[in-house]
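Dear colleague,

As promised, here are the two records you asked about, laid out in our usual form so they can be pasted straight into your sheet.

NAME FIELD: protein one
SEQUENCE, THEN STRUCTURE:
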Amino acid sequence: MSHSQALWFLAPGEALSLEIGPGARELAVAKGRVWLTRQGRVQTPAEDEWLEAGQSVALAAGSRVVLEAWPQAAFQLLVPPAACKFRTPPSKSAA
């Protein structure tokens, strides 16, 4: 898979709603600018933030976000190493 195949693209004014998971993710903006809104809860209001190319933000598993391009954007949803379950390679027995 090439780097460009791993990018999500948002056209001018386009919005996208995403539910994060399974596991945490990191949203990294590659091009343009993104307006990100994190879904609020009863005790916590929704939170907005601007992200520009080169910036990233951690997103918790199970969270919901809405992204809007200003004016257009490309981004990646990355799986941080801490969210992966690493398996130990099988040991080689001596013959």
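NAME FIELD: protein two
SEQUENCE, THEN STRUCTURE:
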Amino acid sequence: MATSVNEPIELKNKRVMLKTAIATTRILLGVFFIISAIANMIHFFAQGGLYETVTTAKLKLWGFGFEGIGPLPSFLAIPYAYLLPPAELMVGVMFVINRWVRWAGIVMMLMLISFILAFGLVGNNGLLPNNESSWDKNVFLAACAWICAAYDDYRVNRKNNNSYHESFLI
């Protein structure tokens, strides 16, 4: 089987493209969460703001026109409302600076799952609603967070395994 002379270069270019795509996704996701945290902090007590939404809105759970249950009991809703903006800010910063991305990604996915439960997987207007919080954004962001966290786990484990094997070569 003949191999091309350019094969190692092409493989290197593909790795660079993959790293660039994941880094871009990670940074954009981090910036999105930082902006969301800032907006939630600024409008925390405003009418329709985070505090009011968390303490008074019904959980849509699966959507499909389901009117929801709730709201959350205050012993859950109030701590959630106060902890959400700092958690969004923290995971966003960790994604931007590329530190502890695995753990930040897990927290980010848990937050996004809570948003999906709160707003429903499918909104009242179907799968493609106009100007309504719905499954598409939250599921897409959760998938991006999972990809970034999985890649970081792969990168860290590969780095640790290489240093382990190199110690036997010395």
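A couple of things worth noting about protein two: Helices lie at 7-42, 50-56, 74-97, 101-119, 135-169. Residues 165-170 have pLDDT under 50 and may be disordered.

Best,
R.
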